[in-house]
Amino acid sequence: CREPRFPARVLGVSLALFLIPLSLGKGEGDTGGEGLLPEPLPEVADLLEKLSTERQDLLNVLAVLSDDQAQEHPKGEWSAKQQMAHLVEGEPEWLGWALSVYHRPGITVGQPPEVEQPFLREVAAADSKPLAWWLRRLGRTRAHTLQRIHEINLSTADAINSRGVHRTWGDMTVLQLLRGIYRHDRMHRDQLLGQEQSFTPRLDASRTP
User: Fold this and answer.
1) SS3 for 13?
2) pTM of the entire structure?
3) Residue 205 pLDDT more than 90?
4) Cβ atoms of 86 and 120 closer than 8 Å
5) In this structure, are residues 24 and 155 in contact, taking their beta carbons and an 8 Å threshold?
6) In the predicted model, what is the mean pLDDT of residues 174-192?
7) Which distant-in-sequence residues (6+ apart) come within 8 Å of 123 by Cβ?
8) Three-state DSSP string of 100-111
9) Phi, psi of 25 (to 5 degrees)
């Protein structure tokens, strides 16, 4: 099944929402000369690109759905709207975990392994909202994520490799936690397309109950 491609503006949600100028290195802790911005690390440049492209790939899949189709439950699975609600709730959590580790290396974050499915607060009522409403929520959430990334200094290897412990996934760096945001998009894009997941999170076996 080939994924459809559509213009950046999809049902009122523009890719421009996600392309906030990100002059990394001018966030907190930067004492460099005015106007002198370091080149972003390759890993950070890749992160920012994928935060935009993976979200656009997801929007491309959602663009072909009518409102009725977006609330269908194939084989009893979550509807597209419910998956969007789950993503909208999960993104700030992943971001918050990354920021916590950035500010306090070694901290423990995240839900415990016995919580099999987090980010459920808005899922049950998701079908009652219009598809366009959820698309706008996705746009605002991603714009906020990019702005928060802009506000911290990820211009050094020490910053992106600061480590913490996730209660389910084990040791993770700031960069790995931020990558979790776009990988979550990818997982649900695959689910919407009825494809096998191209990414599967690794569970820390030592933390299973």
Assistant:
1) strand
2) 0.80
3) no
4) yes
5) yes
6) 96
7) 78, 82, 85, 86, 89
8) HHHHCCCCEECC
9) 105, -10
